[in-house]
Amino acid sequence: MPQLAQRVGRAKPSAIMVVAEKAKQLKAEGRDIISFSIGVPNFLPGPHVYEAVRQALDHDSGQYGSNRGDPAVLDAFLKHMLPLGLDGYTRENVVVTVGAKHALYNLAEALLDEGDEIVFPTPYWTSYLDIAEIVGAKVTALPCPPEQDYKLTPAQLDAALQSKPRLFLFNNPSNPTGMVYTRAEIEALADVLAKHPDTWVVTDDIYNRMVFDGIGYHNFVHARPELRDRVIFADSLSKTYGMPGWRVGFLAGPVDAIRAVVTLNSNAITNVPEIVNAAAVAALTGPQDVPDAKCREFQAKRDQVMAVMESIPGLVCPRPQGAFYVFPDVSFAFGKSHHGRRIENDVDLCDALLDAKGVACVPGSAFGEPRALRISYTCPTPQLAPGLERFREFFAELA
Ligand code: PMP
């Protein structure tokens, strides 16, 4: 067989999918499995989205569309950005992509040459590492342990930017930790970024509508408007509107960088389909009751999960304020046994938890933090309490 390109060999299969697949297999064998593994929102968009799609079908031209995105979608996204504190952008500053993952992949292609340095905090969303490795970038991951609430400090950022990396990738609210940076924290990081003009900044803020406790969503551009010429904001319909399979993402940023992504779009996807555009416009401009209600529901579920985390002696869990993840440090359990089965690390722990209790979580090493595991609490509501009870029992049974 002819050889494959080296770049595909550098990307590893997603650890999240490995757990999800094992959970699926056990379920198929008849086991009672509760999955806290995959980060899907588990709700559907409002009926107006489906109605818009039905109408679009009646008028579908079936033709190729714009590489940048349908003007109606671009305008809807520009309007959607206003309450996030991102104003003054025009159609030239935005582009539609096939989900935020494709947006980030495009940016890696557009901004990073082989060997260029990319910096991001750890814990990180798994694809950051894989995408960086596919394009051959040099990764500098900045450790942000639970002792600092998994958050990057201005001093860490300042030190990391001394080497003039090409790209700093930031994620707020965070997957996997659920942490949200306060306004003061964003301002302090923005002050550091302002001192380092050689570095592009990408903010992956796809959970921006899922922020709890009234702390609000904040971003670097809002804090320091002069950063606008090198900050690129990524967003998506997936989590906010319960539309992960519809594959719609966005980027907003300086004209040249966005134009580069349009060029990549023109060579890779051409356009987002017409009926998907209709769904996107309806989601962005229609009633916002579904995302608003889901945010309140996730906040209540966060409380429910945290009550259990706080009841487990030895477990350390910074309190998340957004998204739908909790990321407890479970390292106190390493070296212990569960009914004679020894647990050395996060992978052993997640395996034993799945085998013994039928609860699927993702090992923290998938996100660069092997002391932790990730709980995604978007499972159907009736499963949450029993799943958490099994989780608590598992830790109580360690010896
Ligand atoms: N960024 C983060 C932090 C995510 O959690 C995800 C999805 N899990 C993505 C990007 C990709 O989202 P999309 O479905 O829009 O591709």
UniProtKB/TrEMBL annotation:
Provide this UniProt record's keywords sorted from A to Z.
Aminotransferase, Pyridoxal phosphate, Transferase
GO MF annotation terms: transaminase activity
Please tell me which top-level EC class this enzyme sits in. transferase
Task: Name the InterPro entries on file.
Answer: Aminotransferase_I/II_large, AspAT/PAT-like, NHTrfase_class1_PyrdxlP-BS, PyrdxlP-dep_Trfase, PyrdxlP-dep_Trfase_major, PyrdxlP-dep_Trfase_small
Cross-referenced Pfam families, in alphabetical order? Aminotran_1_2 (PF00155)
Q: Determine if Transferase is one of this entry's keywords.
A: yes
Question: What Enzyme Commission number(s) does the record list for this chain?
Answer: 2.6.1.-
Cofactor dependence = pyridoxal 5'-phosphate
Could you confirm whether the keyword Transferase appears in this record?
A: yes
Stated family = Belongs to the class-I pyridoxal-phosphate-dependent aminotransferase family.
Name it: Aminotransferase
Q: Which organism is it from?
A: Coralloluteibacterium thermophilum
